[in-house]
Amino acid sequence: MPNKKQIEEMKAVLLERKDIIQTNIDNGKQNIDSLKSQEVNDEFDYAEVSSDSYTEGLIINQQVAELEEINSALARIQHGTYGICEMCDDVISLGRLKAKPFAKYCIVCRELVEKNLSAQTKK
Ligand SMILES: [Zn+2]
User: Fold this and answer.
1) Ligand 1 centroid vs 62 CA: distance in angstroms?
2) Which of 31, 48, 52, 73 could join 102 in a cystine, given CB atoms 3.0 to 4.6 angstroms apart?
3) Strand partners, 84
4) From first to last of its 123 residues, what are the pLDDT tens digits of the chain?
5) Residues with Cβ < 8 Å from 52, sequence gap 6 or more?
6) What is the CA(97)–ligand 1 centre distance, in A?
């Protein structure tokens, strides 16, 4: 289990990451708004604008999802359950937390989850 100092370090990393993502989301939304407010003259332009905002939207969705992961990691820090696998209650290794500060599963469970996900998409 990570000690207090290590948890403080991970918290700083998470908060920093959260800041960056929040800025990205805000900027992304502004970009979409400015794209939408641009005057669209013909069909070609319209396709360009909508595909751009579609891509922007996908990026924002990813960022929002990551923001949620970060928020839930911060909540786990607050509740003292940070660094513990949600599935098997095992301790998540510090190396893994450093690579992915908002990891909620240990490596074994993560693999199981990923296998399940890819099995679902194959159906
Ligand atoms: Zn686990």
Assistant:
1) 24
2) 73
3) 91
4) 778 999 999 999 999 999 999 999 998 888 777 777 776 655 656 566 667 777 888 888 999 999 999 999 999 999 999 999 999 999 999 999 999 999 999 999 999 999 998 887 765
5) 35
6) 13
What CATH number corresponds to the domain at position 29? 1.20.120.910
Instruction: Collect residues with CB below 5 Å from ion ligand 1.
Output: 85, 87-88, 90, 106, 109
* Domain, as residue range, for 18: 4-122
Domain count, the chain: 1
CB atoms within 10 A of CB 82: 24
